[in-house]
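Sequence design from tokenized structure. All designs in this work follow the same two-part layout: the structure record, then the generated sequence. An example of the structure record is given first.
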């Protein structure tokens, strides 16, 4: 008895495994059957695997436009679609598509569930490549999976296109708008305008467009749709003029917030300008005095409490020196208190006090920041009104992630490819249905 059971188990586990069996397990297409799997070799080396697909006799063919059953018309020559490589061997689906005569659409090719349009790749392969292209560069993906860069590009394009068409934009309440430098030089074309969702529950890239003009932002908001724009409660941006106007114009109901990280950026830039000018002045006068400012760029720009060790000693010496740079640094550091206020009123009072001190500092770059802050005071104070509602630091974080992608620019060749890569990595897009998940 016991032995009988044992031997039947052994017999069961010895069933010959065929590729067809696996395919039927992981990916079955209604109306089609896997008829044959063949390995083609040359000089003893495996070259390709061909999986022949045939129509299921009992199931009617369907129109590729409306997917309704339709009577047959004729049969086209056999075609091949690239499938996920098995054991590192390029693998193809082979099938002779039939044509149907649809009552509504006339004579068209039948609906073929493993592909879309005239693409030479199966959806499984496209989804497979697209998922890997998030982890590897596109070129690496192509090499590892025995295909071309172009095939990876087309796959990601299809994947992103699907995601953009199916993404949910309801519930977007806060957006961050920013410009990103891309490519070389300062031509208009080397900037991007990005729109992020920065709600506490969801941070993602919503839109990206070339250049940083009013037209760009208008186009972006238009593509997000009237409903999204009208539903916005917070818009976060830098003090970049064209953006301010468009936001006031299109999303007037939303509270416009000037972002903390941008203001810190302006302050740092001003400190650096003071340092550079002073360094030049000192070099003319005496070499020893100039040494105090050497290699001090980063210690000066970092948050004061984060500077440690030798850099700290040098910084302390510099601060004791009464150089203009030391005064600029002190102003920058004092401004950090501003962000800790809870009441808008007190924050406003601090801002006035800070600007008053900066205006008397006799440091032109610092005065310029003070004037800029005064001009935009209401928008800056909005930061306190939006506290807790928007995810602060989200814009900065997403910007950094974008730079990681754009720096891989050598892999992208064109602007369009990079745009697709950005949506792919930062858009949090939904993915095509799970029947295409195969890895
Ligand atoms: Zn039809």
């Amino acid at each position: 008895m016991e032995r009988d059971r044992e031997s039947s188990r052994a017999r069961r586990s010895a069933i010959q495994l065929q590729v067809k069996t696996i395919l039927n397990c992981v990916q079955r297409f209604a109306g089609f059957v896997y008829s044959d799997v063949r390995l083609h070799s040359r000089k003893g080396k495996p070259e390709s695997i061909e999986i022949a697909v045939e129509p299921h006799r009992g199931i009617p063919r369907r129109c590729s436009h409306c997917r309704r059953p339709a009577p047959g018309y004729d049969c086209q020559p056999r075609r091949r679609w690239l499938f996920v490589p098995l054991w590192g061997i390029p693998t193809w689906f082979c099938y002779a598509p039939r044509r149907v005569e649809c009552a509504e659409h006339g004579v068209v090719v039948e609906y073929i569930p493993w592909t879309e349009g005239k693409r030479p790749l199966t959806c499984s392969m496209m989804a497979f490549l697209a998922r890997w292209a998030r982890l590897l560069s596109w070129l690496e993906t192509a090499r590892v999976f025995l295909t071309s860069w172009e095939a990876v590009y087309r796959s990601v394009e299809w994947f992103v296109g699907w995601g953009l068409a199916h993404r949910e934009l309801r519930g977007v309440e806060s957006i961050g708008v920013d410009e990103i430098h891309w490519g070389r030089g300062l031509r208009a074309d080397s900037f991007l305008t990005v729109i992020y969702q920065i709600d506490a529950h969801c941070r993602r890239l919503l839109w990206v467009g070339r250049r940083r003009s009013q037209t760009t932002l208008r186009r972006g908001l238009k593509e997000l749709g009237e409903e999204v724009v009208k539903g916005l409660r917070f818009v976060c941006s830098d003090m970049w003029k064209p953006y301010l106007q468009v936001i006031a114009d299109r999303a007037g109901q939303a509270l416009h917030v000037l972002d903390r990280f941008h203001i810190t950026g302006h302050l740092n830039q001003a400190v650096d300008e003071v340092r550079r000018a002073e360094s030049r002045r000192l070099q003319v006068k005496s070499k020893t005095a100039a040494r105090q400012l050497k290699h001090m760029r980063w210690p000066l720009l970092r948050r004061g409490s984060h500077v440690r060790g030798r850099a700290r000693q040098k910084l302390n010496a510099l601060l004791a020196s009464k150089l203009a740079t030391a005064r600029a640094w002190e102003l920058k550091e004092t401004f950090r208190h501003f962000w800790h206020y809870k009441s808008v009123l007190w924050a406003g009072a601090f801002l006035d006090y800070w600007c008053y001190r900066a205006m008397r500092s006799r440091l032109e770059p610092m005065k310029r920041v003070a004037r800029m802050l005064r001009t935009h005071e209401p928008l800056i104070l909005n930061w306190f009104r939006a506290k807790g509602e928007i995810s602060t630091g989200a814009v900065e974080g997403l910007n950094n992630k974008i730079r990681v992608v754009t720096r891989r620019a050598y892999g992208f060749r064109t602007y369009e490819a990079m745009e697709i890569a950005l949506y792919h990595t930062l858009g949090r897009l939904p993915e095509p249905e799970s029947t295409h998940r195969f890895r």
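The chain is about 45% helix and 20% strand. We note this feature because it recurs in several other targets discussed in the main text.
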